[in-house]
Amino acid sequence: MNAAGINRGTAGNVSARVAGGFLVTPSAMRYEDLGPDDVVRVGMDGTPGGARKPSSEWRFHRDIYATRPEAGAVVHTHGPFSAALACHGRGIPAFHYMVARAGGRDIRCAPYARFGTQELSDRALAALEGRRACLLAHHGAIAFGADLDAAFALAAEVETLAEMYWRALAIGEPPRLTDDEMDAVIAKFAGYGQR
Ligand code: 13P
After folding, report:
1. What is the pLDDT, as a whole number, of residue 100?
2. In the β-sheet with 109-110, what is the strand arrangement from edge to edge?
3. Does any domain span residue 195?
4. How far does residue 87's CA lie from ligand 1's centre (Å)?
5. What is the atom index within ligand 1 of the atom nearest the CA of 24?
6. 109, 91 in Cβ contact below 8 A?
């Protein structure tokens, strides 16, 4: 994530679903210092196991696994372009067809709530309705996927789209694709890629 520019320092966190819970990065540790024993297993009731404290954002990781059966991994980022838009409370509209990669006609921005709170999780879950990614006001972004590769790829895509939108905004608010066109793109993505 740091090499891809979607997180810096200890910002962000990652998890993967396992039987009865999920594995999540520990809180406030540099990614380059982490070993397997630093990763924390958290049960669906929020009970952590292991030597380290889990990410302060374990609640939204847990709540995504609890409500979105298609989620196998979750990536949370503080990507600079995603965060810049989110600091204005702006999501990413249908200015580019790749917005449909997140599953809907736009990528919403959840209203602000303090990091690590249930309120943040509740607001993120609402913004993720029908989507696999959202921005978080004054904070960053969340993306999930069937596995770690898919979640990471979408997190990087969201940051790319945020950068494109930010650049497009420099010469004015770009025109939007229509709802019908976005729906057609979403349908086309269902059969896109190699088997
Ligand atoms: P953690 O190190 O506790 O995961 O916190 C980082 C973060 O991005 C909180 O939103």
Report:
1. 98
2. 48-49, 40-43, 21-24, 13-18, 73-77, 140-145, 133-136, 109-110
3. no
4. 17
5. 4
6. yes
Is residue 173 annotated as a catalytic residue, yes or no? no
In the chain, how many domains are there? 1
Which residues fall within 8 angstroms of residue 168, CB to CB, at 6 or more apart?
95, 174
User: What residues flank ligand 1, with Cβ below 6 Å?
Assistant: 10-13, 27-28, 55-57, 76, 78, 115
- Domain annotation covers residue 100: yes
Ligand 1 atom having least distance to the Cα of 28: 2
Q: Flag whether pLDDT at 195 surpasses 80.
A: no
Model confidence pLDDT, tens digit, residues 21-34: 999 999 999 999 99
The single residue of 57, 129, 159, 173 carrying the catalytic annotation is 57
Q: Tell me the longest C-alpha to C-alpha distance in the chain.
A: 51
Q: Which two tokens stand for residue 181?
A: 């066109």
Question: Is residue 26, in this structure, part of any structural domain at all?
Answer: no
